[in-house]
Amino acid sequence: MPTKPLILVLNCGSSSVKFSLFDTDETGELLEIQSGLAERLGQPEAQLKLRAKKETDTLEIAEADHERAITTILDRLRDDGLFERIVGIGHRVVHGGEFFSGPTTIDDDVLNQIESCNRLAPLHNPANVVGIQLTQKMLPGKPNVAVFDTAFHQTLPASAYRYAVPNSWYTDLGVRKYGFHGTSHQYVSSVAAQQLDLQTAGVLTAHLGNGCSAAAVVNGTSVDTSMGLTPLDGLVMGTRSGSVDPGLHQYVATQLGIDVAAVTASLNAESGLLGLSEVSNDMRTLIEAEGDGDVNASLAIEVFCYRLAKELAGLTVALPHLDVLAFTGGIGENSSAIRKRTVDLLGVLGFEIDDVANSQNGSESNGFIHAASSVPILVVETAEEQMIAAQTLNTVAL
Prior knowledge:
- This protein is α/β, with parallel strands linked by helices and 398 residues long.
- It has 2 domains: 6-148, ATPase, nucleotide binding domain (Nucleotidyltransferase, domain 5), CATH 3.30.420; 198-379, Nucleotidyltransferase, domain 5.
- It contains 15 helices and 13 strands.
- The chain has helices at 66-79, 108-116, 125-138, 158-161, 167-173, 182-195, 248-256, 260-269, 272-277, 283-291, 295-315, 329-334, 336-344, 355-359, 384-396, and strands at 6-12, 17-24, 30-39, 47-52, 55-60, 86-93, 104-105, 144-148, 202-208, 212-218, 221-225, 324-328, 377-379.
- Strands 5-4-3-2-1-6-8-7 form an 8-stranded mixed β-sheet, with helices on both faces. A 5-stranded mixed β-sheet has the order 11-10-9-12-13, with helices on both faces.
- The longest helix has 21 residues, at 295-315.
- It starts with 5 loop residues before the first strand and ends with a helix.
């Protein structure tokens, strides 16, 4: 019996690397047979968790960067004798600028275009490029496919994606809102509509991890989102500030005697939860610190939840009707405290949480965590890797 082909998916985040290896069953459905997560990269607590056949193996990789984490993952797959069966590698690529609106087979020109977007996604695209280059080196001859975070949001109307800046900035420089986490928002909004058996759906989605964004989705189509030209915009994140006064750059640069690039670098890597708390960019650490009485950690959490609730409320203007709020991502799926604090700020929209269901992350209630009188609230485990695998398989099969 011939061996079935496999699809490898690599998802490089700003401080993490996920991978999944997919097989197909007799019906053509994709089945995950191995997966792993390297998280807290660059920190002493960095580790890689590997899962295969319901068994988990944890490797300590203290201070590991993206290259070391990815190499460790690929070495394990090679040692397991799986390289020969891999027929394609799908890469989550955060920013495609105006070059790409769908999955694309990667060649030298495409890689150069992806690298040209590094300035728009400085925490992500360079990590995506590292993943591409390492798989090209270690799996020579295997097709690599880029699946772009920005693609799902290409349906935004001009009223949502245009900025009130000189028109030439858009026509000549491509200055506009692009939006990110598109694969996740697309999947989660679809699951939410299916769960509620909605023929027409107005969905708010909140993807919360080290990077965070929210979106308004109508009948499977993105109509607005919180991130903008770059992934720095919008919500408070692990190390990213989210939206700030545009005048901040010049003011801080002048006061500190630094250039605008240094300000932007600080807003990307030294701000957000880390900047406010001066403790950590990891929400789990901050919640623990808050419990120990750390005032700065408490403030960081409060700002995070307030800004999230404010953004979700604002996105409702893009919806014809509000049917459901769906949480996803590492924080969105696992932090009952963050969901509770956020929902408590959204009572004016008809949201109310069920404390018991929320404490269980919706595990005993098909993901639903809302009180009986509330607009539905759902916890959805995102499946970005499965969607990337499906699009990769379709692309390499063409």
